[in-house]
C-alpha cells in the first residue's frame, strides 16, 4: 500500500508543478533560479523523450498505456518473495510518471516541461520525467541484482 501512496503523491506533485508552470511561466517564458545552473522554462513538448517524433499524440497515448500495463504486469507477476524495494518503488515511480505525462497528453495534447538544467546541454523536463527515469533505473537494478532471490523482508509483507 505504501508504494501506491508514493505513486499517487508523485503524480499529484507532477500535476501541481505543471499547473504552476502554466500559470507562472507561460506568460513570462523563463525564470533563472540559479545563475547558469537551473532555470524554470515553460515548454510544450508535443513529442516523446526530448521532443522527438512530435505530432504523434495518439501513438504516444497508446504506447504509454502499453508501458503502464507492462510495468503493472511485471510488478504483480513477480513472486512476492522476490519483490525487492527497488521493484516496488521503481514500479510506482514509472507508473506515476507515465500517468502524469499521459494525463497531459490526453487533456492538453502535449506535455508541460519546465525544469531546465543550464550547465549541460539537456532538454527541458518535468517531475514525471524524473520519476520515470529514476523508476526505470530502480527496475533495472532489481532485475540485475535481486530478481529471483528471496528479498522480501518482514516489514515488506504488509506493504503489498
In short:
This protein has 160 residues and is an alpha+beta fold. The protein contains four helices and three strands; from the N terminus they run αββααβα.
In total, the number of domains comes to 1
Cα distance spanning the termini? 6 Å
Strand content: 5-15%
Helix content class: 55-70%
The coarse silhouette is: globular
Class by SSE composition: alpha+beta
Could you report the average pLDDT, rounded to the nearest whole number?
Answer: 85
Radius of gyration: 17 Å
Order of strands across the main sheet: 1-2-3
What do these coordinates show?
- The model has no long low-confidence stretch (mean pLDDT 85).
- The longest helix is centred in the N-terminal third of the chain and has 27 residues, at 2-28.
- It is built from four helices and three strands, in the order αββααβα.
- It has one domain.
- Strands 1-2-3 form a three-stranded antiparallel β-sheet.
- The chain has 160 residues and is α+β, with helices and mostly antiparallel strands.
- It has helices at 2-28, 57-77, 85-107, 127-146, and strands at residues 30-34, 38-45, 111-117.
- It starts with a helix and ends in a 14-residue tail after the last helix.
Amino acid at each position: 500500500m505504501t508504494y501506491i501512496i508514493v505513486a499517487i503523491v508523485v503524480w499529484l506533485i507532477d500535476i501541481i508543478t505543471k499547473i504552476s508552470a502554466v500559470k507562472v511561466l507561460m506568460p513570462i517564458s523563463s525564470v533563472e533560479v540559479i545563475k547558469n545552473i537551473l532555470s524554470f522554462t515553460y515548454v510544450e513538448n508535443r513529442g516523446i523523450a526530448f521532443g522527438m517524433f512530435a505530432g504523434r499524440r495518439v501513438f504516444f497515448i497508446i504506447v504509454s498505456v502499453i508501458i503502464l500495463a507492462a510495468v503493472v504486469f511485471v510488478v504483480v507477476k513477480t513472486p512476492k518473495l522476490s519483490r525487492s524495494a527497488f521493484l516496488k518503488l521503481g514500479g510506482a515511480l514509472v507508473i506515476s510518471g507515465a500517468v502524469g505525462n499521459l494525463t497531459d497528453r490526453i487533456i492538453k495534447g502535449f506535455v508541460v516541461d519546465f525544469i531546465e538544467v543550464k550547465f549541460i546541454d539537456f532538454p527541458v523536463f518535468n517531475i514525471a520525467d524524473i520519476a520515470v527515469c529514476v523508476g526505470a533505473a530502480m527496475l533495472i537494478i532489481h532485475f540485475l541484482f535481486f530478481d529471483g532471490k528471496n528479498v522480501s523482508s518482514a516489514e515488506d509483507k504488509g506493504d503489498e
